[in-house]
Amino acid sequence: MREGKGGALTEGKKEVGALGEKAATAFLKRSGYSILHKNFKCKLGEIDLIAKDGRVIVFVEVRTRFTSTYGSPIESILWRKRKKITMLANFYITKFGLENESFRFDVVSVTKDDGHLNIELIKDAFWEV
């Protein structure tokens, strides 16, 4: 936490992101997903979550917003980010020899309203760019 305007405590960007990823992970598990990796890192960057939904490998981008000043979490995933996630997914698929598996890209949106977290899952949110 950090001090914001008027001395009020506010969450920092990393804290908000970590809270969103934790909430998204719990939500996906309750929805029947198996979590394979959290914050998978390689030379190209990082994928928030990699999971399995049945037989499908799912690359999950988690977007958390506690204010609508800069738009919704979903609106923040521009083509550059989609391209980067696609490159990371291709690296992961090659690294683990998963070329014959089915996969998709999901987005989990986490917002805060009146102190409550709202979680929205968008399955197959985008395809390769």
UniProtKB/TrEMBL annotation:
SUPFAM superfamilies: Restriction endonuclease-like. It comes from Candidatus Aquitaenariimonas noxiae. PANTHER family: UPF0102 PROTEIN YRAN (PTHR34039). Belongs to the UPF0102 family. This is UPF0102 protein COS99_07290. Gene3D superfamilies: 3.40.1350.10. InterPro entries: Restrct_endonuc-II-like, tRNA_endonuc-like_dom_sf, UPF0102_YraN-like. CDD domains: PoNe_Nuclease. Pfam families: UPF0102. One of its GO terms (molecular function) is nucleic acid binding.
